[in-house]
Task: structure prediction
Amino acid sequence: MTWNEVAWGPGYSQGELDGAQERFGLTFPPDLVDLLLQHRIPGGWDWSKDDDRIMKMLALPLDGILWDVENAGLWWPEWGSRPPTENERAEIVGRIVADAPKLIPLYGHRFIPEEPSERGNPIFSVHQSDIIYYGSDLTNYLIREFVNRRPSAPMPDPIRRIRFWSDAVDRAGEEACYRDGLE
Result:
């Protein structure tokens, strides 16, 4: 399949993108703006009308991490001592994730961070605390997801590090997180 064979939808107007960013409190990186002005991602979110679905996707990263905190004993050492109550744990993890760059949903559980507001941010696949790089940047991701359909193909180095989310990628491959008394 080639780039031109992908079933892209028609692009958004600048007004539609501005409205979506305002409604959701987001700042789209410039490469995402350029893409969305030209094309809609096939099977992606419709930024002009999928407000409820997009709100759920914006909450998904935190909700998934909290699920693993409560159901798989996830707790990173740098978060401090694991509090005894679910509410206390949720408050700590909620603050940490709120301080991280927001993740903008693209397609499925693929996200691009809004910070830095520059071209070249990596794409993350987020499923609970299983967080991996799914593209070294937006173009690499789109080719891997929609053209080559080879998400396991190697990605070019280096991949820009994103506060918190890159640490989560590093953690996904480690046994270093604390899980119900295992250290």
Notes: The chain is about 40% helix and 15% strand. The longest helix spans residues 51-71. Residues 175-183 have pLDDT under 50 and may be disordered. The CA atoms of residues 6 and 146 lie 7 Å apart.
